[in-house]
Each structure stands twice: as structure tokens, then as C-alpha cells.
Amino acid sequence: MNIEASHHQSLRQLIATRKARVAVVGLGYVGLPLALTAHDEGFDTTGIDLDPERVNKVNQGDQVISYLAPGRIARAVDSGRFRATQDSAALAEADIVLICVPTPLTEAQEPDMRYVTAAAETIARHLRPGQLVVLESSVWPGATSTLVRPILETGALRAGADFFLGFSPEREDPGNDKFDTHTIPKVVGADDPLSLQLVEDFYRAIVTQAVPVSSAATAEAVKLVENSFRTVNIALVNELKTALEAMDVDVWEVIQAASTKPFGFMPFYPGPGIGGACIPVSPAYLSWRAIEAGSATPIIDLARTSNDAVPAALAARIATELIARNGSSAPAESQPLAGYKILLMGIAYKRDVEDTRRSPALVLLGELERLGAEVDYHDPYFPRLPEGGEFPTLAGRQSVALTAESLGRYEAVAIITDHSAPDYDLIAREAALIFDTRNVFEKAGIKVTGGRLVKV
Ligand SMILES: NC(=O)c1ccc[n+]([C@@H]2O[C@H](COP(=O)([O-])OP(=O)(O)OC[C@H]3O[C@@H](n4cnc5c(N)ncnc54)[C@H](O)[C@@H]3O)[C@@H](O)[C@H]2O)c1
Asked: Which residues does 405 contact at the CB level (< 8 Å), separation at least 6?
């Protein structure tokens, strides 16, 4: 047996017997659930993160991600087969290394591959024959083979022969209580057959279904296509909302009825704009790479521009409605909402998660303040807005308690993020005017009795 076949055989064996040791680089929203899943399926797992606070909290079993099952992290730590560390030397001990570091955008809205490059450089320093490295971060098609592979090959080891390399896109959906890391099918791709078989073997061992594709670039494209599909459809449904409203037709009712078609239609819902580290970002990776490859993605680009414009349009709509009802005592035209107090419900970028990355709620808050309003927020996940976020001027703001008395202080309450915890019955009774971007009240059958409801 040649040397690559023997490395391949022994790693297959280690995976089959759950003796392979797994290292996950980056213990964020993606890496931590993945590391826990590898552990839960029987693998000795080490999570490596640069952030000492994250490492300490994980090792103490703290509930650092609210929607993970209570006690799951603590149970993993107690098992003795799961740990977090800042020390990258742990990479040398691992048989399988999974990279889950951020892939944001630069200021110029282009792929920021700094974290992937840095992680690959660290892995390269510890790389040893027989290891399998899998990139999970969302990247442009070609990044694994043209960016990560050359870094890993700076020493004497070669991918597909001395070590193995693949890509498997993350499909984590924070807060989704129907699917989790274990039950979401996993697409796997690699550029050589030995690597592909190992990536497939490993994911088959930890998730219910692995879906092999012919190359790493194909697997990378799968992720960007999934997110671009969402981006375009969200832009479309927000456009439809505005157009149908002008015709006095309720888009929510239309979507509900259209969803009864058993084929060819998939419901998307209007909202206050898109957020998170994923949907607003991945399509930009695809557009950037398309231009580099001599092509273009005008539909995706238009959808991105359209989605980015939603929070400002919503602020303008709220201003128009408020002024039409109550008039404006604004000293300047640029501040038509001077004197108005508005409460935003939900500041996280989506329901039931403690994540404000690229949250449209924060953009809206800034816009309403620019128009002169005094804006407060209520969000059970953010008693206080943290320092060091993307919106530094908002750091330190505190969530307002939801009471009949506090609700009485605002000219309007706007439902932005439809967390499940707040008492919407109370809002329905006490708020003077409600702007509902999520159709919360109608969906839950809550009758608004205190003031007026405007679906925006
Ligand atoms: N959050 C999601 O819902 C989601 C869903 C699908 C895909 N993704 C993709 O998954 C990737 C990771 O996203 P995330 O949301 O988990 O990010 P995150 O910011 O929550 O976590 C990333 C972690 O990596 C750590 N880190 C950064 N560089 C490191 C390094 N060199 N070594 C060790 N640790 C390092 C950070 O300290 C942080 O804890 C991104 O490419 C993202 O686009 C995210």
C-alpha cells in the first residue's frame, strides 16, 4: 500500500471506531454547536478560540448560546471528552481539523478572508501527515483550493497525498427548533477522491445525511447559492408588500393563500430588513467572485441594494404615519420626528437569538433618531447593548421594561424582531399606535384594543 492510501485507511478506521480526535477552530455560533455535535456522536473534541473569555465560559459549561439545550455544554465538559483552549498546539494532536472562523466583508463590501488566512497559517504550523482539514466558513468558490490549500502546503506536505482537505458549508439556523447541527444534511466536497471519502465518512458519523459533490468549489457555491436565493426572495417579498399595499391588498394573506400550492411556491415573509452574519454577506462573496471570473450577478446585486434600503424606508414610513396622525412640531424639516418617543420591540437580527450582527433594528434605530425621534428598545436578550459592536454609539443603552406604564410613554411601539418572550397582549392593550413589521398580532390572533395597528 502506498503512503497516501495508508494514511487514508488509518483515518477511515479512526473515524469508524470514533477514535479520531477532532479540533474545531472558532467556537462561535457555528463552531460551538458543531464541536458539541462531534462530541455527542462519540469523538474526543477540542475547540480552539482566540477569545479567552469564550474559552473560559465554555470550559465552565456556561450557556454561551441561548438556544442550545440547557446543560449541553456543561455535560460535554463533564464527560472529559470536550474542552476549549486558546492554545493552537492542540491542533497537532487532532486527526480532523474543522475551520469555523468568521468571513465578514471589508469596508469596500468585499470578502474579508483575514480570519480564514490566519487560521490556515496556524494549522499549517502544526500540520502532520494523515490529518484531514475541512473548511466550514462561507467562502467564494475556489477559496479552499486557491487560498487555503497553498497555505497548508507551505511545508513539505501535499493535499490529497500527505494530508486531506475538503469543504463543507455550514447551514446552522440559529433558533430553529425543528433542525439542528445533527439533523441538517451536510454537503461535502473535495478536489481528490481520498479527501472526499474521508470528509464524507466523518460527516456521516456526526450528521444524519452527508451529500457529496464533485469539488470543494461546488460545495462552496452551494452555500452562496442558498443564501443568494434567500436574499433575492426576501427583496422580492418586501417589494411585493409595498406594491400590494398600494392596491389595498394584504401581502400576508396573499402569501398564506399562495402557500397552499403544493409545488412551485415557497413562502418568504416581509420584514424590517435582513441581518446576521450570513444572508447579507454570502451574496457579496458570490458577486465579487463572479466579477473576478468575468461574469456578473445583477439580480443579486439589486436585491442586496433593495434589502439594504429597507430600514431607512421603514423609518420614513413610520415618520409619515406619525405625522399624519399627530402633526409635527419639528423645529427643522430634517427632524420631522422631534418630540416623538418610539419604542422598538426587538433589537437582535432575528427571533429568539442573542445576536445583533448587521441587525436592521439598529439601523432603523439610528434612522429614527436622525429624524429627531427619541428611541428606546425592549429586547429580553439584550438588557444592555454591549461595547465593541458594529454600532459603537449605541453601546450601553438599556432595554426598557415592558409595563403598562412604560408603554404609555411612547407615541408608537414598532415590532421589529418578533421574539417569543414579550407580552404582546399587553402591547395590544396599552400601546397608542403599533407598527407591526412581522404580522405578530394577526398571526397570534391578538386583537389590538388600546390604539391602532398599522402593518408596515
Ligand atoms: N452564524 C450563522 O448563523 C452562520 C450560519 C451559516 C454559516 N455561517 C458562517 O460560518 C462562519 C463562522 O460564523 P460564526 O457565526 O460562527 O462566527 P462567530 O463570530 O460567531 O464565531 C467565530 C469565532 O472564531 C473565533 N476566531 C476567529 N479567528 C480565529 C482563529 N484564527 N483561531 C481560533 N479562533 C478564531 C472568534 O473568536 C469567534 O469566537 C462564517 O463563515 C459564517 O459566514 C454562519
From this structure: none
Question: Which CATH number is 3-217 given?
Answer: 3.40.50.720
Which pLDDT tens digit goes with each residue over 55-101?
999 999 999 998 899 999 999 999 999 999 999 999 999 999 999 99
Pick the catalytic residue: 278, 314, 347, 407? 278
Q: In this predicted structure, what is the pLDDT of residue 329? A: 66
Following DSSP, what letter does each residue of 211-272 receive, concatenated? EEES-HHHHHHHHHHHHHHHHHHHHHHHHHHHHHHHTT--HHHHHHHHTTSSSS-------S
Coil vs helix vs strand at 414: strand
pLDDT in tens, 95-106: 999 999 999 999
The residues pairing with 454 across neighbouring beta strands, listed in sequence order, are 435
All CATH 3.40.50.720 domain ranges of the chain, comma separated, are 3-217, 309-455
Burial group, residue 281, by CB count within 10 angstroms (0-12, 13-18, 19+): buried
Enumerate residues 6+ apart whose C-beta is below 8 A from 79: 39
DSSP 145: I
Contact 132, 95 (CB under 8 A): yes
For residue 174, give the ligand 1 atom closest to its CA: 3
Nearest CA to ligand 1 atom 5: 172
Using the mean position of ligand 1's atoms as its centre, give its distance from the Cα of residue 340 in Å.
39
- Find the largest Cα–Cα distance for the chain: 84
Cell of 40: 455527542
List residues near ligand 1 (CB under 6 A). Answer: 25-31, 48-51, 54, 100-103, 115, 118-119, 122, 137-138, 170, 172, 174, 277-278, 281
CB neighbour list of residue 324: distance below 8 Å, 6 or more residues apart: none
Angle at 250 between CA 246 and CA 256, to 5 degrees: 145
How far apart are alpha carbons 217 and 190 in whole angstroms? 8
278 tagged catalytic: yes
Ligand 1 atom having least distance to the Cα of 32? 16
- The DSSP bridge pattern shows strands 44-48 and 21-25 to be parallel
Distance 115 CA to ligand 1 centre (A): 9
CB environment 126-142: b (16+ within 10 A), e (fewer): bbeebbbbbbbbbbbbb
Q: Is-contact 161 8, C-beta < 8 A?
A: no
CATH of domain 309-455: 3.40.50.720
